[in-house]
Every structure is written in C-alpha cells, then in structure tokens.
Design brief:
The chain has 185 residues and is an alpha/beta fold. Helix content is 39%, strand content 21%. The strands form 3 sheets. It has a 6-stranded parallel sheet with strand order 7-5-3-8-9-10, with helices on both faces. It has a two-stranded antiparallel ribbon with strand order 1-2.
Length: 185
C-alpha cells in the first residue's frame, strides 16, 4: 500500500505507484512541462512520488515530493551528484520506508533503473552535430574550460544513454520519428 502526503497526514491508497525522477519540474521547460501536465491530470489514477531538486507549478498536495538536495557546482559535478543522490534516496525509501514502485519514469537520463524514459534529445547525436563548435581551436583560451566541461558532460550523458537505452525492458517515448531513429541507432 502507498502513502500519500496530504494536509499533514497520511492516506493509504491502492493506486499504482509511480516514481518520477527529474532534477526539476516546472511549466517553463518542454520536457518538464509535459511531466507537470501529466502528473496534474493523472494524480487521481496514480500515486506519484517525485524525486526532484525543485518543483514549481504543481499542486504538491496530490503527490509525495522527496526533495533531492542540490549541489551548487559546475553542471557536470551537479549532474553526477543528482544522478547518485536520487538513486540513494529511492533505495533508502525502498529499504527503510518499504516504498515499492510499479513504474520508475524519467524524462531524460536521470537514473539507470527507469522503466519508462521520455527522450527529448539524444545527446550522442547532439554532441556529434556540435563537434566543430566544441573544438578548442577557433575559441579564445578563456573559453576552453567551458568547452572542455561541456565535452565531458556530453561524453558522460552519451555513455549513460548507451547503457539506459539498451536495456531490453525499457520503454522509451520519443516526440518525433527522428528522435526515435536516433535512439534505435
């Protein structure tokens, strides 16, 4: 049975339990807006547990929000922290709070154990298109640290994509045929 947090009390539910894993949710960004809209419309039919650092534009009285602490650092380090921290929080909930999920959903590469992933961009393809812009030559030395940081970030995400997208039981949702074909490649 699930626990739904409402106005300072717990209510037991028999609804399917869904973990949503996203660093932030709001209505200002495309993939995150789609998640907010889905959770807003589907909360009567599912018990949603949000693992996120920041949630805006969503009525939290209908969901369980497990705030993942954010790390104020360059994007690469903040992402690695996020990736590890959300996994640890979900394991903690499973082991000590006995919370089991019917589905783990991620808009993008946010965890290795997602059952469903919505893919808004395939970073391996994006990085290959950006290869010329990521070269150090042609850029002033003051920009090199940012370019190197970005190259490491794209390499990390591309590697994780290969691991996540190749899982046989994964269900991936793509907004277009082009993204679908990139995932298959």
């Amino acid at each position: 049975m699930g626990e739904r947090l409402g106005a300072n009390f717990l209510v037991r539910t028999l609804l399917p339990r869904v973990a949503v894993v996203s660093p932030f949710l709001d209505r200002r960004h495309g993939a995150e807006r789609a998640v907010v809209e889905c959770v807003s419309r589907l909360f009567p039919f599912f018990e949603f547990h949000l693992y996120s650092q920041r949630v805006e534009d969503l009525d939290l009285s209908h969901v369980v929000w497990r705030r993942v602490p954010a790390l104020r650092a360059p994007h690469l380090m903040a992402y690695v922290w996020w990736f590890v921290a959300n996994q640890l929080m979900r394991r903690f909930d499973r082991w000590f709070r006995r919370v089991r999920f019917d589905v783990v959903f991620s808009p993008g590469i946010n965890c290795l154990d997602a059952d469903v992933v919505s893919v808004h961009v395939v970073f391996r393809e994006f990085a290959s298109r950006m290869r010329a812009e990521l070269r150090l030559s042609g850029h002033p030395p003051a920009a090199w640290a940012r370019l190197i940081h970005r190259r490491f970030y794209y390499a990390l995400i591309s590697g994780l994509e290969g691991r996540v997208y190749s899982r046989k039981r994964l269900r991936a949702a793509a907004p277009s045929g082009k993204v679908r074909d990139e995932i298959q490649r």
